[in-house]
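MODEL INPUT / OUTPUT PAIR
PAIR INDEX: 1
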Amino acid sequence: MEFEHLFPIWDKLTVSEQKLLNQYALRRTAVKGTLLHSGSDDCLGLFIIHTGQLRAFILSQEGKEVTIYRLFEGDICLFSASCTMQSIQFDISIEAEKDTELWIIPPDVYKKLMDSSIAVANYTNQIMASRFSEVMWLIEQIMWKSFDKRLAGFLLEESVLEESELLKITHERIAAHMGTAREVVTRMLRYFQSEGMVVLSRGTVQIKNRKKLQMLSEQ
């Protein structure tokens, strides 16, 4: 898939704007675990995902992580180019959760497009609104939903993403996604196991009773 097929508003750009993107957009690969962006001082440009999966997360002063959203094929990551927008100063980190191919639009190029194209400016605002909604949803989950329900929902989401009932994920990794301590995750997973919802082994969590997890997550 070529770059123009991934950029949603390609047909709304002028010929000169299309030529600018074709000239400067960079194709890059990132192996699983690669940290692509780290904080507001790290401004690589706009990410457009070709294949793979990225994770955007925030990091507390104590080193605790919490995932705020994920990016899949065709998704666009705006905060990796936050330096192009003076009103946005988010210390968000982005890593490859799977081997990923992506296009990068350099920040100065994207800034030029936003200044010259109403279509690009409007699309940027749409992305910002969408990401803001995702962050607000996460805040609501953390503030108002108990951890057992959040964990049940997370396991079900992972199962859908991986298309498997057997999740190859550590307790530490789950804790990083959910913004809590590994010990908290371990205790809750052991409770889930005692209730027949999962089976635990080293480095894996196997879902055994999907219906029960679903009922718990929806309470």
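PAIR INDEX: 2
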Amino acid sequence: MSRIAILSVSAGAGHVRAAEALELRARELGHEAVHIDLMDLVPALFRRLYSASYLRIVESQPALWGYLYHASDRTAPNSRVTRLRKAVEALNTGAFRRRITELAPDVVICTHFLPAQVLSQMTAKGTFDKPVWVCVTDFDVHQLWAHPHMAGYCVAAEEVAWRMRERSIGGAAVRVTGIPIMPAFQAPLERATCAEELGVDPARTTLLLMSGGFGVGAIDQLAERILSIPGSHQLVALAGRNEKLLQKLRGVAARHPGRIFPLGFTRTVERVMACADVALSKPGGLTTSECLALGLPMVVISPIPGQEERNADYLLEHGAALKAHDAAGLEYRIRRILGEPGLLQELRTAAAGLGRPDAATRVLEEALR
């Protein structure tokens, strides 16, 4: 069996969740898997600038993030700005370089571009010589993911592979595997059983309102608006780790008994999704992949310019989602779904056709081939 180093960066939850899925699946297959979050091995100031600033910009200035995303995608790899960024990152990743050298893995899989960049530089200098695979965690590929000396890339879909081959350096392999999600998404899930666990009625149309792991957004207000739509539908609302939001949702539940079921952070989101007919969510790469794995269509809400926008485009192009820019647009689309059973079935069929529940296994097979 192999020793596998799985490297992530906690800038948003998706990169870490993909790494955790790979770690768990690798151990199930009998390998020695070690997950390292690069942010645990950098100075505190760098961590705040790298991770916290990303979240702050995405939450408060999404248009700015969109500009930065697209502008950096057009920046020349050898530009002065790029060289300065890499130099700053190199100065702050010494502890990581020592850790990966001590670990001496047989293969490395990166679910974020930063560790891939560091290992590319180490390989160029002759201080690292093991194969490095990069697992892109969105339905898009930014130039920050492409580095020399990579063994290969695992991507979400055929178009992403096409674009990655244009960007990849040195003829690295590009494989369409899907985005790694937890092995639990491969197991058959009974709607009735999962609904009973949550206390929801499996016979009623169930909407799943997802705020993401950090509980971003006025979810309680959206919940009130959805519940005002005539009908017998019910709502499961996830607050993530946001305790204040969870309390607000419980207040909504008190005003609408038996209609809304608030939940905090859960490690069995697949069982929650199995109860639902449609997910109302931001289209993050991991959330999108989890929904598709269960054939759960989405109404994507105000995707962040950049990677979420591209994820939404993928879903819309393949008929697996509708898109709402604001609360009014969300209500309109929910009314359509509730009033047009044929539309919901079309969305569900398209979503099921895109799902890759075995993505973690396929990534590991490629990396260990």
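PAIR 2 NOTE: The mean pLDDT is 91.
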